[in-house]
Amino acid sequence: MPAFTTQQRLTLAIVPRLASLIIRCLGVTLRYHDVVDDGAATGYANPTAAVYVLWHRSLLACAWRFRNRNIAILISESFDGELIARTVARLGFVPIRGSSSRGGAPGLRNMERAFRAGHNCAITADGPRGPVFIAKPGAAQLATLVGTDVGAFYVLPQRAWQLRSWDRFLIPKPFSRVVVSWSNRVPAEPAAVQQALDRAVELAEKFLR
User: Fold this and answer.
1) Which of 98, 134, 139, 169 shows the smallest number of beta carbons within 10 Å?
2) What is the CA angle 33-34-38, rounded to 5?
3) Tens-digit pLDDT profile for residues 158-175
């Protein structure tokens, strides 16, 4: 556990509680719809653990949809990552620390342990710093380690505020319709993962047109 300043400790004591409360209040107003590619399936009731990828901008909308399912999520070891980890833990996720840029190898090993313990594992393919919509190899590496394929999904609100951040982060507007699109599972290869994510985006945007 890193040493935090007094101000950081105060932030960590307040922000995750407040953020998780806001997510709960917003989440109950959202209307989710699943869109599934031909031959694909949603990931809500996997009989065994699986590896999934998504884009970083969808995290907020995902937090409510996938709450309380003990999904393992790879989260940066930065201070911002600590805020996110403590927030999602309050929503029933299992935060695993590490990323492609900081603590990547330990993070993948811990995700491997989570997978073998029976947890579904989710990785933001373009996190934690981008570039946006460019998949890094982490998900393919994890899937190779555990001997499985990779599923991709995208969560897109019909109405949202888009931040001026590297990931074009989306904050769903209250009472918005939100589509969750699922593409077919693909082999543990970076190019195939990129194509699956692109396909999930295509499905979501087509549904909301």
Assistant:
1) 134
2) 145
3) 999 999 999 999 999 999
